[in-house]
Amino acid sequence: MKTLSIIIPCYNEEFVINSCYTRLASILDNLKKIKSQIIFINDGSTDNTCMILASIALSDSRVTLINFSRNFGHQAAVTAGIHHCQSDLAIIMDADLQDPPELIPDILKCQEQESANVVYCVRKSRLGESKFKRWSSKKFYRILNKFSDTKFPLDAGDFRLIDSRIIQEFNRFKERGKYVRGLISWVGFKQVPFYYERGVRWGGESNYPLKKMFSFASTALVYFSKKPLQIAMGLGFFTVFIGIGMALWYIFGKIFGYTEAETGWTSIMIGIIFFGGVQLLTIGVLGQYIGILFEEVKERPEYIIEDIINKK
Ligand code: UDP
Ligand code: MG
User: Does 212 fall in a domain?
Assistant: First the structure.
């Protein structure tokens, strides 16, 4: 008999967690030839999520609850779920029911038919998400794909099935800033898409404000690409050439008398501001990478667990 774990990160989900559990449990009960388990990761919720999850875990031995000591973020929570998963298969999904649990049987079927190591779920539509979020996410994945050697599927989130082979490889990753979906794509093996309609949030509100979205995007970019550094260097070369060109033009101009260098205020100001901007920008790019190095060399744990209920 195969074993399956459902990994669900939760942060302040008191309004949805009960329906999430009941809908999921009824699907899992009907799965044939599969023994399932649910791993909830309470990512330092400040509402009643922890209490609700604890009472679910106490009444259902299939449910494991990992409580973090504080909020460590979505990716750390998913990582902890994968670290604690000993099943043949795992499905990562959100607590807010935007990824419908009713799809699980079809995803499993897809995995079996294709004998895939990863089934990543691709959103055909994204209901209830703002135009800006859809537009920015589309642009972001295009840029990421251009910038990185790894190819990332468009319109796929963390909602995916992975098998024990992938879990085993994932557990070898030592980097702390984990961009989970990127790392799973990076691992390789057989990865197949599964198309679905992404619903609206069941209740509560999104925990991904613009600020978190930006930091998520910059982690992905900096961890998966050195292109920003190369662009910065390219910009440097470009401006140096312009500088040399201008210097030669005016020096020879003076000697041969075809130009008279004006002591113009405007051109000097433009030059200073433009090249000052280029310098600050490149220093900023460098800073991003140094910041990441700083985080990584400290070797702090990615998350701290307060306690685990129903540890398997
Ligand atoms: N989440 C988390 N920690 C956080 C933020 C979010 O564990 O700091 C969980 C959240 O409970 C949900 C999932 O990550 O299960 C996706 O979050 P959300 O629905 O807010 O993101 P969106 O769907 O709006 O991108
Ligand atoms: Mg959501």
Answer: no
